[in-house]
Amino acid sequence: MKFYENAPTLIAEQDQFEKDMIEFAGGAINPIKFKAIRVAHGVYEQRQEHTYMIRIRCAAGGITPKQLKKVAELGEKYGSSEVHFTTRQEVQVHDVLLQDVIKVIRGLNEVDLSSRGGGGNTIRNILTSPLSGIEEGEVFDVDPYAISLTTRMINEPDSWNLPRKFKIALSNSDEDTAYTQATCLGFVAAIKEGQKGFRVYCAGGMGAKPMVGHELIDFIPENRVYHVTKAIKIMFDKHGNRRSKYSSRIKFLWKKLDRNEFLKLFYEEYDQVKDDDSLNLDIHEIVNEGIDPQISVESVDSVEFELWKKRYVSAQKQEGLSTIKMPLCLGDLESKDAYVLCDFLDQFGDNTIRCDRAQNMRIRNIPSKYIGNLYNIVKSMSHTLVEHAPFIANMINCTGAQTCKLGICLPRGLSTELRDKLMHSDLNLDAIPEFRLNMSGCPNTCGMHHIADLGFFGKIGRKEGKIYPAYNILAGAKVGAGKTEYASKVSDLPAHAVPEFVYRFLKHYIEEKEEYSSYHEYLEKEGVELIKEISAELKEVPLFEEDQSCYIDFGAKRPLRLDDMGAAECSAGMFDMINVDRKQMETRIKGLDDVSDVEEELYRILFHTSRMLLVTRGLDASNEQQAFAYFEKHFVQTELVDISNADLLQEAKKGQKSYLKENKQRVIKLAEDVMALYKSMDDSLRFKQSPKQNVAEEKDVVESIKKDYRGVACPMNFVKTKLVLETMSVGQQLEILLDNGAPIENVPNSVKLEGHSILRQEQSSEGHWSVLIKKN
Fold this sequence. Notes:
alpha+beta, Sulfite Reductase Hemoprotein, domain 1, Sulfite Reductase Hemoprotein, domain 2, 5-stranded antiparallel β-sheet, 5-stranded mixed β-sheet
């Protein structure tokens, strides 16, 4: 059985990729160009120097036992000796050295697997409901459509150079377990007047700017799936934003055009192909049947076995067959365990494994009499959670900053800490088997926090100038075809406080849940307020000098640093830094009438007002006096805010807090003006009102095309570069000097993502780098 047919050009493409790697290793290809090449082949650089992860396409989450065993062998020989299951219903091999990447890719080809399209601006892994084809109550099996659509799309040359990634999902019922409204294009199985077909949703997506998908067509016949997909792909290719990585997904096209114009452009393409029967997908039914290998039946008689069956074994709609959820710890399956499991499953045929979106395995088509045999295998495996409640198995976390270069926090470490705390607690976790607790290391939604009952995503916290790992808290997602709502942000708290927070919240919910018809009613009546109360109690962080433990993330060995942020994401922590001061400013203004020392409170308000936007000018004040001075020079004297506020800053620098009390309303008005300025700022850190500069400053910026940012840490080196580019004319060139390490890894990629060109990138004999930029 094959879950897709690779393109005939695949081997030639991989031959070229191998040549590119050799040239890159020899310095003939610059890192930026090579990154685009390797990402298209599903090869991503990890945080550990010179190591890579390889994403492997698994259409409909399907992989055969022989294929999975091969992936495990490659992982043991060239990687971390394990297979990682992801929230994209695919598998990965981690910790592969550059010289071994092509060996892994060639090995995948031997069993009809491919990493091509695991990343890059192309059709990503096509998802389905993990129980499609075997679930009682489903409309019909959608896996054959995903498999056929995958084969068609990856064989088309125009699928490989889209404006951005294109994600597709198909659900087998209105329960929408494939989350079709949270992706670029979604199909939900439906039957209308006896005809099989789909309801179609479009322009959904999670990430830092989430959007729930919109209904595109209320019903299409089953043979028009490709026609709709092709029309969307062509429309996206023509009209998508290729300049900015951050606003190039289909959801941004919907937002830019509005519904009517989007539909107009879609139907211009769809009407040209909708009646072309030659485009119909070649659909082959997937037979879900039980193969009896006639092996010895292992009888198990224990309380643990019965509890495991209750938690993880379900009857399929095919009589006599069972499906088993295989709960994996952090999505990892050790190679040695994979060998034993795959050898056992291979006896039951190719159609026995699906990857699900909770980073677990779904085993299917096992004759029920052999459940004991399977139990004896999985209970001896080292990275499974078979002894624990489904709640623990359903917790989702991305890899975060441990391997991902975009991460801020370490959700794998947090997940381990949570699991240890909850498993040894007094909570009855079997009372909430379907509860979704999802964690991401940054605003990007690899951990699917937007569709969680309780979700967390990483951010930067700040205490007296020191940064620490923290998480935003979301709650209350609803999932269902046409009914999806993302979780709402409720609060935030330091990373070290999350385990205690989760314990307290779940304890209360489990105790009270029988009083409510649903979790959402509980949230509405008291849950949201409880989240706010608990997080308020746990939000305090000691000074860095008093206790450094709160500044070190779970699983980290040192305090969080800005230069730990990933490549091409220099501004990942920038808005978090702004929000620290914004929240302090707003909170203190709101409570000003309730404090005893009004003078001190106004002084703190002015400090946070002054420091809030300094990062946008490439400045970081280490104390109040510096913040007041920088703000006066770069915001007041340039008239980004009213120049009449200069006296407030001058008196504050002298420590004249009584003057601030006398001018209380002016201090508050200045804070409001800074907030308005912040809201006017675009994604490129430009304000609607341009700052004024004196002639000398303008002359210096125009004439100076070389800037030395050695010794300047991330993200300040990027911000400074960005600000100089703003003053330059299109076509001008800027040379910047950067330190080796994080600066050279981060800044050039981020500049390129802003739409500018890197003309040259060379390392000097002293070790620093020279980067020549052309402004576009």
